[in-house]
Amino acid sequence: MNQLARLISYLYHPLFMPLIGCITYFMVSPRYNSAEEVKAILFPIFILTILVPILCFYILKKFGVVKSVFLFGLKERKYPYMIQLCILLFIVYKLLPNRGLPELYYFFLAVIAAFFSALVLLLMRFKVSMHVMAISSILVFTLALSLHFHINLTVLLAFLVASTGILITVRYYLKAHSPIELLLGFLLGVTAQMLTFKFWL
Question: Residue 138 in contact with residue 108, Cβ under 8 Å?
Fold first, then answer.
């Protein structure tokens, strides 16, 4: 059971959230985007939000700043959070403007807000479940896309709801987080996305 729980934690790692959000958008959006346009977004997102953080993680690990990919300790989380925030800000200011993708733009703004809030709480000695924050962000963003484009995404939403519940259970089972840390992650992910609705929904 422990191995299965850890596998689920790896599969739903927060690093994948930005890329999954982008893939979800392109899968459900009725707007036409050429293959080249999609690649021009997904490829840099993959490099910036997955490969670069992994490289930074190994550098931080080499210097003893972090020990595990799950960043169990409070001190371990500070620098990875800051690095991820810088990457997300770069995406919002350099990659997404003038692309005609307001939904993705505000999705990333919400992710930045959630990450920044998590960092502030971290500096106040509060740990947030980034796994739950990530999956709840995707869940709310997908729900918003369904409403925005008037598309029935019941199956996908049901899968995401189930995934959220499973992930919360797994993280609690592994003793990675307390109930309040799981709740904080959920609230940050949901609230940050909802605050951007008035700008694009």
Answer: no
